[in-house]
Sequence to fold (248 residues):
Amino acid sequence: MADMLSLRGVDKVFATGAQALGGLDLDVREGEFLSLLGPSGCGKSTALRMIAGLSQPTRGSLEWRAGRPEIGFVFQDAVLMPWANVFDNVWLPLRLTGQSRTQSATRIEAALDLVGLTGFAKAYPRELSGGMKMRVSIARAMVLRPALLLMDEPFAALDEITRLKLNNDLLRLKQELGATVVFVTHSVFESVYLSSRIAVFSARPGRVVADIEVDAPLARDDAFRLSPLYAQACKEASDALHKAMGEA
Fold:
């Protein structure tokens, strides 16, 4: 795979003096599912926000191979407008580009269908479960059909059954749309199940200390979780994570 983006020697120091990233080198390849795995507070989300253009490095560079693509961002919380129904929440990115509700209707309906929410366009956030709210957030990120989807621990607050279901749905969406995905998590098991590659971060200041390939097709199911390949990749990621935390 060709590189879509390269981060080189990236440091991030906040105004308080806290350093989130130190010497981060990271490549994002076109079409991959890349997980950023590390302990809480290690700079994973900071790196994601830099890729999104929401934050700038203190030192170092971000280099796009063919220009910055259309980007979708899914936050840890669904961040829906409580006064707006599902249709209007998903419409927001299109509305910001000047498209009317009528012009946007077909794309919004298609996005809701992709995330399994056909029939819920008129529902309000207060009427939805946590998993359904996250599906709305994903639909909103996908409605522009971005080439790059950034996801910041989107399933962390969900129960295990809902989380596993959304893991499967996310892989299906990735296969259907072909987007590159960068996914932040602190779960070894989730990172191995979802990813074609895992970048393991050290404790703060964050940097990549291990790069793990998960050499299996992304069309995965429960049988993959019982496979020797899954077990070995989980062990490798867990060992790298514990080593990084021990060195810190």
